[in-house]
Specification:
Strands 4, 5, 6, 7, 13, 14, 15, 16, 17 and 18 form a 10-stranded mixed beta sheet that branches. Strands 8-3-2-12-20-19 form a 6-stranded mixed beta sheet, with helices on both faces. It has a 4-stranded mixed beta sheet with strand order 1-11-10-9. It has helices at residues 15-26, 63-79, 100-112, 153-166, 215-223, 291-302, 363-374, 399-409, 415-425, 429-432, 455-464, 470-477, 486-506, and strands at residues 5-6, 8-11, 31-34, 50-51, 84-93, 123-126, 142-151, 170-172, 175-183, 186-193, 199-204, 207-209, 231-242, 250-254, 260-266, 270-274, 278-279, 316-325, 339-346, 349-357, 445-446, 453-454. The model has no long low-confidence stretch (mean pLDDT 95). It is α/β, with parallel strands linked by helices and 507 residues long. Helix 1 packs across helix 7 (363-374). Strand 9 (175-183) and strand 10 (186-193) form a beta hairpin. It is globular. It binds flavin-adenine dinucleotide. Flavin-adenine dinucleotide (FAD) binds at residues 11-17, 34-37, 41-44, 46-50, 176-177, 210-214, 218, 222, 236, 275, 320, 322-323, 355, 358-361.
Length: 507
């Protein structure tokens, strides 16, 4: 048992746990973040990857959520410009859909409700303009254009953990919190390393339950604290197909069940189509896309696409479970996407703060609200700061300048490769490539082209970013897995495992 006393133990290394760890550590708290698998291994890597206000939430009168999300879009574009970028959306429109006046009103609100924005406002477009109707059926004659942003969700999570560590937090991945109780004036938290089965107990003055879809089971089964709130588990799936349209914009498509689907350019050669809303009884039931969901997404896209997609076009799928706050809505699409924080304490001490709901987009504000809730227990807390400090790698002027700077330093490396590295690591690319003069210095290479994964980057992700398993690198620190064939994936996986084995022997 460790004798060290943490101010705060945070359970869960998704976006919310990592965001709170960053904020709390930067305000002077001594923080331990514990994740049972990899950072962002659950819902935080299975999102639609949008930093958005959520146009459709206006229909549900979620004005607070939309306002906060749009304000956050501005903040996040500034603090993480390497992994978050503006994205134009086209909303095709015809008579059978929501009336044009309603869409115009919604978009007017969307343009203004968040206050000043750096992104262009919405406008109507007509489709003789092929730029904005690429890939669509020629019968579609008009639509609307508006702005939002896209994010690399798993990297956003890792960058928050990196920043938390820079501010003094300790981060333990592949470690499960198995139990916790208040005893002798402190929280006693039991941890189990999932690889070695070693157990440890740590003490803390407070606990944050950021276990995402496991928020309620953690309360019921691990700490036995009854809280009057429930989580609604809603599965959402995406399919990835070869790119369906030229151009950098995304489509938002109105489906005939009143839901919307997105088609988003993804990883240069692909399109990401999502998503679904399916109630599930447990997290285990939410890991895999069903045949019905694939059919649903193909149909939603094909209502608009000139060249219909078929099931064999699907190159990859992913599925996650939304941990939504149960507000009583029966339709899973109508359950609030806003977050709710619940705090339990013992005689005004030893808080346990649990997080229900939330979005990637609002994680930073959620963290600020969490620290407001915790303030009575930690009078030493300093003020909010995370809006003003770039996330690791985000302190760069522009993508173009950073890539050309890298090109000057590493002239023999292909520009496409340098660009994809800068998209992942921003200004930290120099650290990844320290001492690299030629391709040979990158070590063994896996995959090809812009999706090249090098021994050098693998070592960096293991050393600096907690990567321990092949999927951590192939699908979360990078998306290189998507561009590799099965043999390339297998070779990369074998290499990653051998590197981690060496690391384990040496520690
Ligand atoms: C299909 C879909 C699309 C979405 N699209 C968007 C979008 O475009 N934009 C947006 O803003 N939001 C989107 N979201 C919402 C967003 O992804 C989630 O709200 C967010 O990722 C939740 O983060 P979290 O940290 O609460 O949970 P998670 O990411 O699930 O993290 C919880 C972590 O806790 C860990 N954990 C659990 N129990 C323990 C334990 N006992 N010990 C240690 N660790 C534990 C888990 O392993 C997990 O990593 C989407 C969600 C889904 C499912």
């Amino acid at each position: 048992m460790s004798t060290h006393i943490y101010d705060l133990v945070i359970v869960g290394g998704g976006i919310n746990g990592c965001g709170i760890a960053r904020d709390a550590a930067g305000r002077g708290l001594n923080v331990l973040l514990v994740e049972q698998d990899d950072l962002a291994s659950a819902t935080s890597s299975w999102s639609s990857k949008l930093i958005h206000g959520g146009l459709r939430y206006l229909e549900q009168y979620e004005f607070r959520l939309v306002r906060e999300s749009l304000q956050e879009r501005e903040v996040l574009l500034k603090i993480a410009p390497h992994i978050i970028e503006p994205l134009e959306f086209i909303l095709p429109h015809e008579g059978s859909m929501r009336p044009a006046w309603l869409l115009r009103l919604g978009l007017f609100l969307y343009d203004h409700i968040g206050g000043k924005t750096s992104l262009p406002g919405s406008r109507g477009v007509t489709f003789p303009d092929r730029q904005y109707s690429a890939g669509l059926k020629p019968s579609l004659r008009r639509g609307f254009l508006y702005s939002d942003a896209r994010v690399d969700d798993s990297r956003l999570t890792v960058l928050n953990a990196l920043s938390a560590r820079e501010h003094g937090a300790e981060v333990r991945t592949r470690t499960r919190v198995t139990a916790g109780k208040r005893a002798a004036g402190l929280w006693q938290i039991k941890l189990c390393n999932v690889d070695s089965s070693e157990v440890d107990t740590v003490s803390a003055r407070g606990v944050v339950n950021a276990a995402g879809p496991w928020v309620k089971s953690f309360l019921d089964d691990s700490v036995h604290v009854p809280i009057r709130a429930t989580v609604k588990l809603v599965k959402g799936s995406h399919i990835v197909v070869p790119r369906v349209h030229d151009g950098q914009h995304a489509y938002i498509l109105q489906n005939d069940d009143k839901r919307v689907a997105f088609i988003i350019p993804f990883e240069e050669k692909f399109s990401l189509i999502g998503t679904t809303d399916v109630n599930v009884a447990s997290v285990d039931k939410g890991h895999q896309i069903s045949k019905e969901e694939i059919t649903y997404l193909l149909r939603a896209a094909n209502r608009f696409l000139a060249k219909p997609l078929v099931e064999s076009d699907v190159a990859w799928t992913y599925t996650g479970v939304r941990p939504l706050y149960d507000d009583g809505a029966a339709n899973p699409s109508e359950i609030t996407r806003d977050y709710v924080l619940k705090t339990d304490h013992q005689d005004g001490k030893l808080p346990l703060l649990s997080i229900f709901g939330g979005k990637i987009t609002t994680y930073r504000r959620l963290a600020e609200h969490a620290l407001d809730e915790l303030r009575p227990y930690y009078p030493q807390l300093s003020g909010s700061w995370t809006a003003g400090e770039a996330l690791p790698g985000g302190d760069m002027d522009s993508m173009r300048d950073t890539v050309s700077d890298m090109l000057k330093k590493h002239a023999s490396l292909p520009i496409d490769y340098l660009t994809s590295l800068v998209r992942r690591h921003g200004s930290l690319t120099g650290k990844v490539l320290k001492g690299v003069r030629s391709m040979a210095d990158l070590g063994e290479l896996f995959g090809a082209g812009a999706a090249l994964l090098s021994e050098r980057e693998i070592d960096y992700c293991i050393r600096e970013e907690w990567a321990r398993m092949p999927d951590d690198i192939l699908w979360r620190r990078t998306k290189c897995g998507l561009h590799m064939d099965a043999a390339e994936q297998a070779r990369a996986a074998e290499f990653i495992q051998s590197r981690v084995a060496i690391l384990r022997k040496s520690t």
